[in-house]
Amino acid sequence: MADPPPLRLLVVDDEAQILELLDLSLSLQGFDVRTALSGPQALALASEQPFDTVVMDVLMSPWDGLETARRLHARLGAAAPPVVLLTGLSLPDHDPAADPLIAAALTKPFRPSELVAVIWQVQARQLDRRPHLTPSSPGS
């Protein structure tokens, strides 16, 4: 049986060195990573190809992470991937129900293993939200 394809991640940060480090760390963990240096570039990439999760810094220009998440949802609707925000700001525990545009938030500094765990948690929640198909019984 073939392995499932790797998760497709869009990683967004306006600092090239951070972006390169995230790309390398996540690629080594088996993710299929695409990168963007800005919100507009992320929106263009997400409009061209589907992603399973967006990992994005909060403090960027010209759009911050929250504005980019809003624009992703406005453009893609239900097809918008879940967003994991990375921030250097101290945040209270993030409640995804409080802001449906953001699936999770992680405060810097963090270990790559922590980011990987958050990505998998977000994906598990996405699977739980999908409608479950029940097999039809014979003869129905």
UniProtKB/TrEMBL annotation:
Transmembrane segments: none annotated. The modification 4-aspartylphosphate is found at residue 57. Keywords: Phosphoprotein. SUPFAM superfamilies: CheY-like (SSF52172). The keyword Phosphoprotein applies. Residues 8-123 form the Response regulatory domain. It comes from the Bacteria. Pfam families: Response_reg. This is Response regulator. The lineage of its organism: Bacteria, Thermotogati, Deinococcota, Deinococci, Deinococcales.
